[in-house]
Write a structure and sequence with these properties.
single chain, 647 residues, mainly alpha, globular
Length: 647
């Protein structure tokens, strides 16, 4: 980075003042790669092209409802000519989207460090991916299961299907992501681009090489030759799977397009060449499209090992892309405005919602047996209006905006505060992360139990034990077993956080270790019990979890020297007394008959709620105390004065 040696020390000092760096030196992942590049330049044409491509994607999916190819659900009307009609956009639409996405990522790199770019992509892509895979895609898959596999409907059928889909055997087949595969690929390709960008000068050299090579007509010729080569050499062997680890033709196509867009976004000579050849490219596409359709329609289209077909396909693919980019650069580069801003914000939520809305609409409308034109128009309107309605709702609810790919309002942190989790600035951040797990663990456990009860028709809360939710009689045992397994792991991690928090606040090393050990054993008992579901005798390893009954007393012991936590101490004492009373009342010890076969379930529910919920409360209070200490006290270790004095 010649010529910038005087810039980095200033940036390093400024970053320290702003809390942006955790280490004493700036590594390459924190170094501003393009400090001299203005970040104010925006290419509105690329925004318009991305919006248009996603709009065409929605229409394409509506077309698949009437096509002859296998899709999630079909209309009662199918048309053979759809086999050729989808070729209007199929060869180039996604390739164009990957190219534009790479260019958009490049704009993010101006005046940002690689670490900042990676965090931004994580916050933008990962929450929607997880949310979509757990909430949006299952709705589509369930409807497909009812349509093709005869799975029962209704709430009970859906809950049972969820248990089946997310069982060990179901997860062994992979988690379905359906249309969200595009997000997976964008996330991985973004990581690849950032890693390449970290290599000093590599992207600049790549851009220079492309700029020198793709001059004049070579901008059309060389990419077409490359697309033909991979179509002939890779597509017959790998096809298009949309499965990341086994999709090599798609990677050779889409990853290269992504990196191409990433490399050329500021290469004006290439964009001017696209503008100059846009009409020629459009003419090539106009000739190639009908030939390609004939090759698909005619039985002889696959002659000569499909090479002529691959040639025409590659010509159409790149010619359309060059035409769109050329016309867009010529006429839309400076065409911003409120409409574009609105559509740009709406595009990602539209993409997330549209296929679920479409599949549900087909399932609901199909029994009416509407004429094909009316049904088609209805599906288009419902898909667009329904997706728009989803966007209008979610953009107004701050807590769910990141789940739909939207930035928090006014740059306020999301309740999960992903940036703070990824980029800690205060002491004790690791302890606080572990305590955060302790806050989340009871919420997960209660949610899992509620879902498992819903998935168990006829479950009797008065007479049946919770373990039976994961036993042989349960319709969807994976809900309970999988959730409790994760909750057990979380409990063990939270216990380590409790132990470290006690040591940080009081210096009581022995108490901290004992508390951590008790929690780890309890978590191990919970997780291990799910490996041997009830009524397997080995399921009783869950009794290790009962050791957590002692944890409130151990925490009182560890926090004895603190005088500024009186309410937490009272809460811990009351919790221990309540658990002791419930233990005495159990039918397995004294007072026989108080808890009996007719009400043992309710006793267990109360006991379980007290047993797990106090952990979340205590973890939250200790997290707040650590935050207070980290903010107000710079001392690295607690002193006797600090322990005894109120904060």
């Amino acid at each position: 980075m010649s010529g910038s040696t005087g810039v980095f020390p200033y940036r390093q000092r400024q970053a320290r003042r702003n809390g942006d760096l955790c280490d004493d030196r700036v590594g390459i992942i924190d170094a501003a790669v393009n400090p001299s590049v203005s970040s104010s330049v925006r290419r509105y044409d690329l925004d318009w092209i991305r919006i248009g491509a996603f709009g065409l994607l929605i229409l394409y999916h509506v077309g698949l409802v009437y096509g002859v190819y296998d899709w999630h659900i079909h209309s009662a009307h199918t048309f053979e000519w759809m086999r050729e009609a989808i070729l209007i956009t199929n060869p180039w639409r996604l390739t164009l989207l990957f190219l534009v996405s790479g260019a958009a990522l490049r704009f993010m790199t101006f005046r940002r460090t690689p670490r900042q770019v990676a965090r931004t992509r994580f916050a933008r892509l990962v929450p929607p991916l997880i949310f979509g895979a757990l909430v949006l895609v299952p709705i589509q898959s369930w409807i497909e299961s009812m349509d093709k596999g005869g799975w029962p409907g209704g709430v009970s059928g859906y809950v049972a299907w969820l248990g089946h889909e997310f069982s060990w055997s179901g997860l062994a087949d992979g988690v379905p992501v359906n249309h969200l595969w595009f997000i997976v690929y964008i996330a991985v390709y973004s990581l690849v681009a950032v890693l390449l960008w970290r290599v000093p000068g590599l992207i600049d050299r790549l851009g220079d090489g492309l700029e020198k090579t793709l001059r004049g007509p070579w901008l059309l010729i060389l990419p077409i030759l490359y697309l033909i080569a991979i179509r002939i050499g890779l597509f017959p062997w790998f096809g298009l799977t949309n499965t990341l680890h086994n999709d090599w033709y798609n990677h050779a196509l889409s990853l290269v397009a992504f990196l191409f867009g990433f490399s050329i976004v500021r290469r004006e000579s290439l964009w001017r060449t696209m503008e100059r050849y846009r009409w020629i490219a459009l003419a090539l596409a106009a000739v190639a499209l009908p030939i390609m359709m004939i090759q698909v329609w005619h039985p002889g289209g696959r002659a000569f090992w499909g090479v002529p077909k691959a040639v025409v396909y590659g010509i159409d693919q790149w010619a359309v892309i060059v035409a769109i980019l050329g016309f867009g650069s010529k006429h839309l580069r400076d065409r911003g405005g409120p409409v574009l801003n609105y559509l740009t914000q709406a595009t990602f939520p539209f993409y997330l919602a549209h296929q679920t809305v479409l599949v549900a609409a087909v399932w609901i409308i199909r029994p009416a047996n509407l004429p094909a034109p009316i049904e088609l128009l209805s599906l288009i309107v419902i898909t667009f209006v329904g997706s728009l309605a989803v966007y209008e709702v979610v953009r107004r609810i701050p807590v769910i905006r990141p789940l739909w790919g939207l930035k928090p309002l006014d740059d306020r942190p999301w309740p999960l505060d992903l940036q703070a989790l990824l980029k800690p600035r205060l002491r004790y951040h690791r302890r606080r992360r572990l305590l955060g797990v302790g806050v989340a663990a009871p919420l997960l456990a209660l949610t899992v139990v509620a879902a498992a009860i819903l998935a168990y028709p006829g479950f009797n809360n008065a007479t049946q034990y919770l373990s039976e939710l994961g036993g042989a009689t349960a319709r969807a045992p994976m809900i309970f077993n999988g959730g409790v397994f994760v909750a057990g792991v979380m409990a063990a991690l939270a216990g380590v956080g409790f132990g470290l928090a006690v040591y940080a606040l009081t210096g009581a090393r022995v108490a901290g270790v004992v508390i951590a050990v008790v929690f780890v054993l309890a978590g191990a008992g919970m997780s291990a019990s799910t490996l041997w579901p009830w009524p397997d005798p080995r399921h009783m390893v869950i009794n290790l979890a009962l050791g957590i009954q002692l944890a409130p007393v151990l925490l009182l012991w560890g926090l004895a020297r603190r005088r500024d936590l009186p309410r937490l101490k009272i809460f811990l004492a009351v919790t221990f007394v309540v658990m002791a009373i419930l233990t005495v009342l159990t039918k397995h010890l004294v007072f026989p008959g108080t808890v009996n076969d007719a009400n043992v379930g309710w006793w267990e529910r109360i006991y379980a709620i007290v047993l797990v919920c106090w952990v979340g409360v205590a973890a939250w209070v200790l997290d707040r105390k650590l935050l207070s200490v980290a903010t107000e006290s710079p001392a690295p270790r607690p002193s006797s004065a600090a322990i005894e004095a109120p904060l």
